[in-house]
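Saturday, quiet lab. Running sequence design on the structure tokens for the scaffold JK sent over.
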């Protein structure tokens, strides 16, 4: 099971890096979103992938409890990635209005003219 997660994370991150290296603002944003999904899967796979009980101290033995740390890290990563993605989308929208297109090389040319 862990091998499937590792291969999936690798493929998702490879696709994300490929999209982020393209010259389009939209592909950059989609690549950033894919990268956050890949990192969330990576954090999820760092925990134990077996079925365990809820981490509530009651009569459940400690060795049968799930580790709550990866779950908390993934929740935090989702919130942060949503904020970064929203900011990147707003920045990309504004940049596309300024350069009247989607090409990142044009954005570099506009930046050096001033």
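Result came back. Writing it out in full:
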């Amino acid at each position: 099971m862990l091998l499937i997660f590792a291969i999936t994370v690798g493929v998702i991150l490879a696709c994300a890096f490929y999209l982020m290296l393209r010259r389009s603002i939209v592909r950059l944003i989609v690549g950033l979103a894919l990268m956050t999904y890949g990192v969330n899967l990576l954090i999820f796979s760092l925990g134990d992938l077996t079925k365990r009980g809820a981490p509530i101290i009651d009569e459940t033995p400690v060795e049968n409890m799930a580790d709550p740390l990866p779950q908390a890290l993934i929740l935090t990563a989702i919130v942060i990635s949503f904020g970064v993605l929203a900011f990147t989308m707003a920045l990309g929208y504004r940049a596309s209005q300024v350069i009247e297109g989607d090409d990142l090389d044009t954005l570099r040319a506009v930046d050096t003219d001033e």
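Notes for JK: The longest helix spans residues 68-99. Residues 56 and 65 are 8 Å apart (CA to CA). Ask whether to fix the surface positions before the next round.
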